[in-house]
Amino acid sequence: MNLDQHPNDTAWAPTPRALLAAPEAEQAATPHPRLHLHRAFASHYLPDKRDIIVYVPPGYDRHPGRTYPVLYMQDGQNLFDPRTSFIPGRTWEVRQHADEAIRAGEIEPLIIVGIYNTPARLAEYTPERDPKMGGGEAAQYGLTLTREILPFIASRYRVRTDRDSNGLGGSSLGGLVSLYLGLRYATWFGKLAVLSPSVWWNHKSILGYVNEHAPNIWDRPRMWLDVGDKEGKRTLQDVEMLNRRLKANHWVPEKTLHFEKAHGGTHDEPSWAKRVRPMLKFLFPATRDGGSRGLQASE
How do strand 191-195 and strand 111-115 relate by DSSP bridges? Predict the structure, then answer.
């Protein structure tokens, strides 16, 4: 598969709302009034429909003139709703952590978009086809994300569309595809959350992809990279190798790169939940204007 950047991957404009045949939000179907669920989002590039859940920050309705940065996250069913999570009842608790960090003035209020996976998760989240396991449809997933999901969200929510306001993230294979697409669409996404990435996929080909594409990126996206020290020796070594490869390609620790080796961290939702708040603090630090001040605990 050719992993080179598509000639049209460097620019986009929000699609007019009338041209988007996607469902409206089902607010009642979520565990909180600031979570909005869009069911069965269809794509021209992939056959499976997928749900999309959108978190809006405290004060969103009280400030209709304000726009927000946005973080797009893979495996959206695990982020907010205990009824849909892979481990029943255990989520990343993203809404709770984001709310607390916003009210504490630690991060800028932001919108978080959770993109549910599909039965084709392994294929959609892997950049290359593995001889034994298959996969290799991440480029098509990238087209679904950039040409369809981003314009859809921009047509319905007050998101900023500049590079520095757009983030992409996920864990495990979701971390792998977030890194891959973050480099492929480096002019679109200025922030990457790469948690416990599956560096092992296809003989660690993502390491070569970093070497190949990093020299073409004029401004390194700000990246949170982590791994739990209880995820297994090989996983830990792989992610540490990725960290070294990023630094060799001019990501600067604590400026454009934060590497976290989480003490006691395992490869599951409860462990990733503990890393949500510090990840948000690194990628979306509060602005000097104190934009989160005055928010009420009930919002």
Answer: unpaired
Residue 219 clears pLDDT 50, i.e. is over it: yes
- Residue range 234-258, pLDDT digits in tens: 999 999 999 999 999 999 999 999 9
CATH of the domain at 207: 3.40.50.1820
The pLDDT of 122-126, averaged and rounded, is 98
Calculate helix-pair angle for 94-103, 269-283, nearest 10 degrees: 30
The domain in which residue 202 lies consists of: 17-216+268-283
Q: Which helix (H) or strand (E) holds 97?
A: helix 94-103
Q: With respect to residue 250, please indicate whether it lies within any of the assigned structural domains.
A: no
SS (H, E, C) 225-241: EEEECCCCHHHHHHHHH
In a domain, 27, yes or no: yes
CA distance 185 to 5: 8
pLDDT per residue over 83-99, tens digit each? 999 888 889 999 999 99
Q: How many domains does the chain have?
A: 1
- Give the CA distances from residue 237 to residues 111, 223, 244, 261, in Å, rounded to whole numbers and listed in that order: 33, 19, 11, 11
